[in-house]
Amino acid sequence: MQMKIVIDARLISKKGIGRYLKNLIFNLQILDNVNRYVILLKTEDLDRLNLFNKNFEKLEVNIREYSIKEQIFLPFYLAKIDPDLVHFPNVNVPFFYNDSYIITIHDLIMLKGNDKNLRRVLKRFLLKFILKTKASKAKSILTVSNSIKDEIVTGLKINKDNVVVAYNGVDITSLALAPKKLSFEKDSYLFYVGSLYPHKNVDFLVKCLSDINKQLVIVGKEDQFTKKLKELVTSLNLDFKVKILGFVEDDELSLLYQNAFAFVSPTLEEGFGLPGLEAMAYGCPVIVSDLPVLREIYQDSALFFKVNNKIDLLDKIKMLEDKQIKNDLVTKGMLAIKRYSWVEQAKLTLKLYVEIGKD
Fold first, then answer.
1. How far apart are CA 149 and CA 226, in angstroms?
2. What is the per-residue pLDDT across 265-274, written as a single tens digit (0 to 9) for each?
């Protein structure tokens, strides 16, 4: 029996969730020639997605995520489509949508925080209330690691049997590099890729630099947190050691990975840790905070340091000066990435769609 499945891809331009959506939809087109799919996209994102399966179509829906309009009007759009199943790839599920749906929860970071600002406290409380309610009514919940599954089961009071783990994959565009000169010498810098949200804890890494004989190169879309980090760098007189490059194209990114001394992530919270796996795919050793989720994903293919422990971080960086240790870590990283496949994730997701359709 053919199902009509809606995938809410309005967040496809966002870095992490966008990559998840693009890979999921690409592989579903290869795997599924039975069911019909309607992909929700905002106008500016219509060209971001290539559809090659005749059973897949785009639908323009200009409703901003996390908005009142989303809560009120998105259910009406969905009712007109009349789907058998809706896949919400993030936690912004309309409160009044009660037909058949599943949710992907990548992490619960948005529900945490020590900020006492009344507006943000109320926002977290409201989001947790909505998410807990919608998660309890979902046909199933997808998540990207067992560590986050445990948080969902405990924090949202969800039956563990209703939470399915489907690991993310590693998406390397191309290892064949276009000729390009890198402005940094090989092994002269530590490398960080990602957002600069407070929980990413990049401030801590910057504050450690005075005791590290390396530069720090940072790549990621610039926002209000970038300005704060630049102010910190200047206040510590470290402008000569910290290079914030903003967004870079894939060819430059791959060169930066391959020539870095190490990829370092001092994060306090994580859902999966995809940049570390990308680093491993490019032969870059990885040093990360010792978090349960990163232990689960990286296993023995990374060096772990105690959270916010400067001495431990410095020790791990020093360890990589031993070429044998560094080479062994790179080899383990190359083996680790083979455990993670976007195709396998899409297969698990499709299996879930089909099982729900049979109910």
1. 31
2. 999 999 999 9
